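Tip: read the tokens left to right.
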């Protein structure tokens, strides 16, 4: 379905009694309707929620990862514990990935196979992160408080509608600041996406 230049997928569900609209992670728009819903009603619903869709698409753009993909190329910068380290391909058998003298050293045999290099680097990040985190909290206390309050608010109200944010605001008036800080931290985390080589 196309409404005012926007393409929306229509999903019909026998379990639905009301219309629903979602913006997927990839930016796709989906309108969910009950079986007997006329197309005109779905179009009117989409038009009535145009501002909401605009807001969600704007938020999606703002929260795009800053570093969504890696090439795993020699010399590429990787972050670890807030510092930058260059990948250095070395002909040095042993551990496939090591942090030595400020360089993230990757054995050439490992680097030759992109899938193997990705697994080795992800394993190194996991092991190194676990070693670092032992006995430490991984988030500042105010963000831990925010995450706990956020989840506890879901006990009373599911979803993230206006009532939910009002409830969270009563429990934690500064929630918007902490949410923005946590969102920004999440944008900077490398999640293992690798560009084709």
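Filled-in amino acids:
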């Amino acid at each position: 379905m196309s409404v005012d230049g926007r393409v929306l997928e229509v999903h019909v569900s026998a379990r639905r009694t009301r219309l629903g609209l979602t913006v997927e992670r990839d930016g796709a728009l989906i309108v969910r309707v009950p079986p007997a819903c006329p197309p005109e009603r779905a179009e009117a619903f989409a038009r009535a929620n145009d501002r909401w869709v605009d807001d969600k698409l704007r938020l999606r753009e703002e929260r795009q990862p800053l570093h969504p993909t890696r090439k795993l190329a020699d010399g590429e910068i990787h972050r670890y514990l807030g510092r930058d380290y260059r990948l250095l391909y070395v002909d040095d058998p042993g551990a496939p990935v090591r942090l030595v003298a400020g360089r993230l050293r990757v054995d050439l045999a490992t680097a030759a196979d992109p899938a193997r290099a990705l697994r080795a680097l992800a394993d190194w990040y996991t092991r190194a992160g676990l070693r670092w985190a032992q006995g430490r909290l991984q988030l500042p206390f105010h963000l831990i408080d925010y995450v706990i309050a956020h989840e506890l608010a879901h006990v009373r109200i599911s979803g993230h509608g206006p009532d939910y944010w009002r409830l969270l605001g009563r429990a934690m008036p500064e929630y918007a600041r902490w949410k923005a800080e946590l969102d920004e931290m999440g944008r900077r985390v490398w999640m293992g996406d690798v560009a084709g080589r």
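The first strand starts at residue 2 and ends at 3. The two ends are 37 Å apart (CA to CA).
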